[in-house]
Design a protein that fits this description.
alpha/beta, seven-stranded mixed beta sheet, 12% strand, binds zinc ion, zinc ion binding, GlcNAc_PI_deacetylase-related, 1D-myo-inositol 2-acetamido-2-deoxy-alpha-D-glucopyranoside deacetylase
Length: 327
């Protein structure tokens, strides 16, 4: 018998490191609180830039081993976040990092950008059937900032939600990651004086692909108690985030708030009770009766997608997560 905690959260991300940068505090917050946190990563991030000179030869244009290396980085990041249930969509390596929009890598035979939507959504649906999350988190239709794999992750997640709705197993709420305009403005003005300003040359936040009016934000998750876990998870992605990145510098200046607080818009479902001038929820499960019979995990798992069975799981962390996390 598989028993899972009452509260179950599913996050769908594009590349290793997105989970830590975008939702690391939320993941650590819920994992620490005893919720079941499932991370589905859609690609291995093969096309990422490499910020560790000694590992430069792993690059896509050379040995093309970065994806495999990043499995180890993601495993370490998940350990830092306290998350043991991690899978790659369709198994590790099924979908490849598509690279930036318009690059030839968009046309790779395994590029996630070119994935068959229903096939990929079906793979995510298998996870939804198994774990029965009440809440799913992914990106907005622009993938937060326009990367093709982020846009595709959004499409796959939303299509999987449609398919799950037809089966009566859909998460009650779907959230999209977001950054309130007031928080973005505060960050930008703070960084103006910095020598390492990631917004250098940006005159107005209207020129940025993200920044959501505060009244459209639905939830503010305060994971400030977990900011150290989030930073440790980010540091686990050393090939992607330089040790002297502005991300760490700004964290030092803003303190726990920058690392620890994450925001979301609500795309599907009913908003629960909240507070403050905008009525922001402080819990992604707000308003959901997680112990209602409809959320009982149906047992046993259906044959064919028993990811808790090591024999049917993929390699590496997926296999380890399946054995450690679900039994
Ligand atoms: Zn990404």
């Amino acid at each position: 018998m598989t028993t899972l905690p009452d509260r179950r959260l599913l996050l769908v991300h594009a590349h290793p490191d997105d989970e830590s940068i975008g939702t690391g505090s939320t993941m650590a917050h819920y994992a620490a609180a005893g919720a079941h946190v499932t991370l589905v990563t859609c690609t291995l991030g093969e096309e990422g830039e490499i910020h560790v000179p000694a590992l430069a030869q792993l690059a896509a244009a050379e040995a093309d081993q970065l994806g495999g290396f990043r499995i180890g980085e993601l495993t370490a990041a998940c350990a830092a976040l306290g998350v043991s249930d991690h899978r790659f969509l369709g198994g590790a390596g099924r979908y490849r990092d598509s690279g930036m929009m318009g690059m030839p890598t968009n046309g790779h035979p395994r590029a996630f950008w070119a994935a068959d939507l229903d096939e990929a959504a079906g793979q995510l649906l298998d996870v939804i059937r198994e774990v029965r999350p009440q809440v799913m988190v992914t990106y907005d239709p622009n993938g937060f900032y326009g990367h093709p794999d982020h846009i595709q992750a959004h499409r796959v997640a939303m299509r999987a939600h449609e398919l799950a709705t037809a089966e009566g197993v859909a998460p009650a709420k779907v959230y999209w990651t977001a950054l309130p305009r007031t928080v973005l403005e505060a960050g930008m003005s703070h960084l103006t004086a910095s020598s390492d300003n990631p917004f250098d040359g940006v005159d107005s936040i209207d020129d940025l692909p993200f920044g959501t009016p505060d009244d459209q934000i639905a939830a503010r998750i305060d994971g400030t108690g977990q900011h150290a876990a989030k930073e440790a998870a980010m540091r686990a992605h050393a090939t992607q985030i330089p040790a002297d990145s502005w991300l760490y510098a700004i964290a030092g200046n803003f303190g726990a708030e920058f690392m620890g607080v994450e925001y979301f818009t609500l795309a599907v479902g009913e908003r629960g009770p909240g507070g403050g001038p905008n009525g922001w929820e402080d819990d992604l499960f707000a308003g959901i009766d997680v112990t209602a019979p409809q959320w009982a995990v149906r047992l046993p798992e259906q044959p064919g997608h028993d990811l808790a069975d090591p024999a049917s799981a993929g390699d590496g962390p997926q296999r380890a997560a399946a054995t450690a996390g679900l039994r």
